[in-house]
Amino acid sequence: MDTYKILQIKKSVFEDNDKQADLLRDDLKKENTFLLNLMSSPGSGKTTTVIRTIEDLRDEMRIGVLEADIESDVDAYEISKTGTKVIQLHTGGMCHLDADMTKQGLCGLGTEEIDFVILENVGNLVCPAEFDTGASKNAMILSVPEGDDKPLKYPLMFSIVEVLLINKIDVIDYFDFDFEAVKKQVKKLNPNIKIIPISARTGEGIEEWTNWIRTEVKNWKEV
Known about the structure:
- The protein has nine helices and seven strands; from the N terminus they run αβαβαβαβαβααβαβα.
- It has helices spanning 9-30, 46-57, 74-80, 99-109, 127-130, 150-153, 155-159, 179-189, 206-222; strands at residues 34-40, 63-69, 85-90, 116-120, 137-143, 163-167, 194-197.
- Strands 3-2-4-1-5-6-7 form a seven-stranded parallel β-sheet, sandwiched between helices.
């Protein structure tokens, strides 16, 4: 007879988080606030992309930003220069945000008068993919310098997002990056994913990206 218990902690943690995430989505729906969870590796250009997005949309909708990081407030400071309301979230060493952390951030931000919130998740292609933040939609950035093998190495991340932004295409000629191979690999994992090549530095492709956001925010409020 066994003299000890085995607890399936991981399953329990995920189940509890999923329940909290669903409740948070319901609350955001009632408030007509669209939450976008933006994920990527460190250095992919998330903050630059967020700033470009704000610049393109700030005259049309009220925007707020949640900046998640293990330490520092470098990114929040950069976002604040746009005049957008921003909250820096320190995860205390954790490599992801979960639904409860996101809710705390939203409470600090205040969503009553915000149409669109961008959650810039912790730079990581593993942990953030495993935790539902309660977001309305999920998006990720893959930058050209990271290489075209990332869908093979981190399939979960590519399978749970609605949009893949392939950033830094302005330097694609200087890297061994096979765009068509990435597209083919990603479509196998996620047939309905939308793939948008962009350069956050030059602005190329940003209009297609923000048009997708416009449509999703509108649909979120109407349904």
